Amino acid sequence: MTTTHKVLIANRGEIAVRIARAAQELGLQTVAVVSDADTTSLVAQMADQVVNIGPAHPAKSYLNADAILQAAQSTGATMVHPGYGFLSENAAFARRVTQAGLIFVGPSAETIECMGNKSVARETAQRAGVPTVPGSAGTVDDVEMAAQVAAEVGYPVMIKASAGGGGRGIRVAHSEPELRHQLPLAKGEARAAFGDDAVYLERFIARARHIEVQVLGDGKRVVHCYERECSLQRRRQKVVEEAPSPALSQMTRDALCESAVRLASAVGYSGAGTLEFLYDDDSGEFFFIEMNTRIQVEHPVSELVTGVDLVREMLRIAMGEPLRFKQEQIVLKGAAIECRLNAEDPERNFMPSPGKLSALRWPGGPGVRVDTHVYAGYTIPPFYDSLLAKLAVWDENRPAALQRMQRALAETSIEGVYNTIALHQQLLADPAVQNGQFHTGYLEQWMARRAAEKALALTSELTAGLAV
Amino acid sequence: MAEIFSPLPGTFYMRPAPDAPNYKQVGDSVAIDEVIGLVEVMKMFNEVRAEVSGKVVRYTIDNEDPVEAGQVLMIIE
């Protein structure tokens, strides 16, 4: 006899809608949990059951494990899908779901813990023979040791605080004299900021790309769904993603994807996961940085180039089905691009723009996909992120996909809130973007240049006005 | 008596960090342009600055409460 499963969706926004769709296609019942601010959300209208789990503030609702588990119990849910963000990489939550006799749609709490710790993940990668950013084996105790390590690793090097994180406690040295000057300062800063003066060295890659590999595992076997190129970022937030990466040769792609599979296999990975790498265009080397043990925002581009429905596969794996694909059955076809449309004003430093959507028109036609939770008349609450929709396209090749995306953007109309459609149109028209030549710092440089040109144009306009 | 309004909708915070003291206590004096709280809009934090000076009578909202644009946050005399 087969169990009839009921999936509780522990998230909101477009990913909650995405999960509801996958569950419905598998004939599963769905439970939406919503905050006070989301009672009229699209997922609340789609799900079989809706439970209010608390006030708008995420800490009181979407991060409230007690309320979510209670909702699961009261509705008889058998599975919990955490989506991305919120509790999706919280090992304690995964453990509680399992202890309550429910299925957590994702890897085990132990795997989340293991990959969530940067130094453990780095060691696991090294043991699996996956390259990590070259650096010191552990911490560097003094200047002499640091100079010796840096000479082997190559300049420039980053001096990083062991106890640091989120970009804090990092200094860059371009030469040995600079390293000798910076090291004591870095140790002092680390002691002051984190109460621990331990530092380590890592090679600084100035013009790196962010390339990540999508994997699926069933606990016994792991396959990959190729890579995504996510280098176009602003303040570490991805803006445009695509698959495959325009930077990789077939040989490098194979090596990268095999590395990802090797590492995920080493931890007996179960579910959908993403391994992030830095790719150095100049040397052609790639280095593992971290693993995300959940579905990602930009998963649609991988789905479009492989035909694999990642969210549906996550649910199947969670229900105990073995992987349904052999690696050779997953074929990379064509090119896909995703633009994140946000409710923000790019002309005013990306000021968030919550409010009511007075009118909406989505694009359609061949190769166009829209993942969204908003509808005409919907009021975007100010309490959560600004993602309005993910507009993704597929076409035979990258130039065709870029054309198709421009067509789809031109067809889209969002009224009532500021949004980033025009920014995407300009960015995709940039020659470097069209040629696939960019790195993680490129988008911010492009925006600075654009702002400077605009200011110059305004000045000459004013001058012209004065002359008249 | 004067009121300080929220310029934006979002979540209101009385303090700069969870473990920090409140920006203002009842009875504190407030100068023009001084920060009296934060409003988080879509994960972006915006400082709320006083447009009048005086003494804090009371906050009219709790920490981490949802807030509408134009809602009164504080009463000053």
Structure, described:
The complex is a heterodimer of chains A (468) and B (77). Chain A has helices spanning 13-25, 42-46, 65-75, 91-99, 109-116, 118-127, 143-153, 176-194, 250-266, 299-306, 310-318, 398-411, 421-428, 431-434, 442-467, and strands at 6-9, 29-35, 49-54, 79-81, 103-104, 157-165, 168-173, 199-203, 208-218, 222-234, 237-243, 270-280, 285-292, 335-342, 344-345, 351-352, 355-356, 359-361, 368-372, 379-380, 387-395, 413-415. Chain A is of the alpha+beta class. In chain A, the strands form 6 sheets. An 8-stranded antiparallel sheet of chain A has the order 13-12-9-10-11-14-21-19, with helices on both faces. In chain A, helix 7 (143-153) crosses helix 8 and helix 12 (398-411) packs antiparallel against helix 13. The relative contact order of chain A is 0.11. Chain B is an all-beta fold. Chain B has one domain: RNA polymerase II/Efflux pump adaptor protein, barrel-sandwich hybrid domain (OB fold (Dihydrolipoamide Acetyltransferase, E2P), Beta Barrel), CATH 2.40.50.100. In chain B, 0% of the residues lie in helices and 47% in strands. Chain B has no helices and 8 strands. In chain B, strands 1-8-6-3 form a 4-stranded antiparallel sheet, with no helix packed on it. Chain B has a 4-stranded antiparallel sheet with strand order 5-4-2-7, with no helix packed on it. In chain B, a hairpin with a 2-residue loop joins strand 4 (35-41) and strand 5 (44-49). Classes of the chains: A alpha+beta (468), B mainly beta (77). Chains A and B meet through strand 16 of A and loops of B.
What's the SSE blueprint?
The complex is a heterodimer of chains A (468) and B (77).
Chain A lengths: L5 E4 L3 H13 L3 E7 L6 H5 L2 E6 L10 H11 L3 E3 L9 H9 L3 E2 L4 H8 L1 H10 L15 H11 L3 E9 L2 E6 L2 H19 L4 E5 L4 E11 L3 E13 L2 E7 L6 H17 L3 E11 L4 E8 L6 H8 L3 H9 L16 E8 L1 E2 L5 E2 L2 E2 L2 E3 L6 E5 L6 E2 L6 E9 L2 H14 L1 E3 L5 H8 L2 H4 L7 H26 L1
Parallel strand pairs in A: 1-2, 1-4, 2-3, 4-5
Antiparallel strand pairs in A: 6-7, 6-8, 9-10, 9-12, 10-11, 11-14, 12-13, 14-21, 15-16, 17-20, 18-22, 19-21
Helix pairs in contact in A: 4-5, 7-8, 12-13
Chain B lengths: L1 E4 L4 E4 L15 E2 L4 E7 L2 E6 L4 E6 L6 E2 L4 E5 L1
